[in-house]
Amino acid sequence: MMSDYMFGSAMNEVVDYQVRFNTVFFYVFKYRSWNDYTPKWRGVSHGEELPYVFGFPFINETYINLTGIYPRQEYDFADRNISEYMITMWTNFTARGDPTPRDQPIIWFRNSTWLEYNLHNHSYLSITNKSENLTNYRQSEFGFWREYFPQISGRGYYIKTDPVPPSKASVYESMTYALAAVGALLLVIVIVMCIVLIRKSRVKKY
């Protein structure tokens, strides 16, 4: 429930909006390492794909000594495979705008081409040991928070807040402006006096 409320429904709204203007690739990370440090009942937690994207399974003792980075768990051959898989796709997307380009061997992508997200079937890539394209990820659950919950709560999905009135200048700000004005006035007076004295001294010489 909290995942759908805090992450899923908002993410779904953003993706549905972005796909109208840009090419969007949507994924759900479902891979779980045998050595995962989190309890099995939690499944795959939010953000758990990041160590694989940044190559943590390839960090060995040499890198640990050089960087001081200690992975939270031990990684095995399968973990390194999934990390290489994700690094390749993220690099392709960054460089070419397509995580699984058609001109590269599909075996590099576990025999699955990542299809673009669309508003018809909400296609996405389920990233596991056997990655595959699926459709309509939790649309009924997101619909509960987007449509049904606002009705029973008596308020719209988007809560509008009153505009913040312009704040009045505080006493300290007023004093600062006043002192700045006085300082500028004194500076002008000093400059004028200097000019008058210089002219008087020149008159006396002649």
Unreliable spans: none
Global mean pLDDT: 87
Q: Which sequence of SSEs, written as H and E, runs from N to C?
A: HEHHHEEHH
Shape by Cα distribution: elongated
Distance between the termini: 94 Å
Question: Which helices and strands, and how do they pair?
Answer:
Elements (H helix, E strand, L loop, with lengths): L1 H17 L8 E3 L20 H4 L7 H7 L9 H20 L27 E4 L4 E3 L4 H15 L17 H35 L1
Parallel strand pairs: 1-2
Antiparallel strand pairs: 2-3
Helix pairs in contact: 1-5
Protein name: Carboxylesterase type B domain-containing protein
Keywords: Membrane, Transmembrane, Transmembrane helix
InterPro entries: AB_hydrolase_fold, CarbesteraseB, Neuroligin/BSAL
Summary of the model, kept short:
The protein has helices at residues 2-18, 50-53, 61-67, 77-96, 139-153, 171-205, and strands at 27-29, 124-127, 132-134.
How would you describe this structure to a colleague?
With 206 residues, the protein is mainly α. The chain has helices at 2-18, 50-53, 61-67, 77-96, 139-153, 171-205, and strands at 27-29, 124-127, 132-134. Helix content is 48%, strand content 5%. A hairpin with a 4-residue loop joins strand 2 and strand 3. The longest helix is centred in the C-terminal third of the chain and has 35 residues, at 171-205. The N and C termini lie far apart (94 Å). The chain crosses the membrane at residues 175-198.
